[in-house]
Amino acid sequence: MNGAEPLPLRFQIGARTLAAVERYLVRVPLSLGQVLDGQPPVLPPLAAQAHGYLITSVPAAQCDVVMAAAPGMIAQVRQRYTRHYADLGIGFDAYQAALSGNTRSGLKRKTRRVMEVSGGLLDVRRFRTPEEMQRFHDIARGISRRTYQERLLGGGLPDDAPFLQSLRALAAADSVRAWLLYIAGEPAAYLYCPVVAGTVRYDHVGHDPAFNDLSPGGVLMLEAMRDLYAEPGLTQFDFTEGDGQHKRSFATDGVACLDLLLLRPSLANRATMLALGVFDRSAAWGKRAVARLGLEALAKRVRR
């Protein structure tokens, strides 16, 4: 279908998908470079059988331009967020200074706690070569199987043949970096980042929920950033699509973006858009009501 693939349009609250409608869509993801360049994406031709496009990380200022490039199609914004990134050219000291005071003090405290549990050792292991990456994957998969991202969202570290082939190819080209954090001798958190033209991409991350109280993800993230700032030739760390407290805490900059769904104006597609719109507005209203009542912690437990 000329690049179209079956993608689920989810009726989702937090981590839980309540229902989904499948459409054949051409996915057009914008890289961080495209977002920063400010040039609208060029949409590929749409095969007759395809339902439309899903364009991710469209700069909010370009939304009207992108919709105008697809006349006659019906449009819906699926989510709005900041495309966060960190400038790797400023040096690690300047990077730390750019973090909020609360973030810096919190990371120091969390790192101390991890070291106390580990007998005074901060055990971070780095992986880069093909042989190292195979070891990383074997260990990180053990962590990933226990994460809520994999159990509820299917979003853990992949172990299918295409991913493993990509991992080996990236490692052979020196185009991937990965880290593991061990706590008291046990693997606790992982981070997997491809490198594309000097941009390090935040692709896969996870931690063992048994170590939740020690915040292993944040501790590992800071050490990974320390390594990346020490490596010449890197320009940016791309936190990719979507928002989150972790990304906000470690980023130095960001661009207001949105994910845009464009569908052919068939009756079925119009009904899908209407249902998604009603659901999203209801979910947003419920989120505001939960916030007003101070029930965020309870809602988070229920969603998981």
Tell me how many strands there are: 11
Output the CATH class name of the largest domain.
Answer: Alpha Beta
Strand-residue proportion? 25-35%
Q: Name the structural class.
A: alpha+beta
- What is the CATH architecture term of the largest domain? 3-Layer(aba) Sandwich
- Gross morphology: globular
Oligomer: single chain
- Could you tell me the mean pLDDT? 92
Number of H- or I-type helical stretches: 11
Main beta-sheet annotation: 11 strands, mixed
Q: What radius of gyration results from the CA coordinates? A: 21 Å
Would you mind describing this structure in some detail?
The chain is α+β, with helices and mostly antiparallel strands and 304 residues long. The protein is 41% helix and 30% strand. Strands 1, 2, 3, 4, 5, 6, 7, 8, 9, 10 and 11 form an eleven-stranded mixed beta sheet that branches. It starts with a strand and ends with a helix.
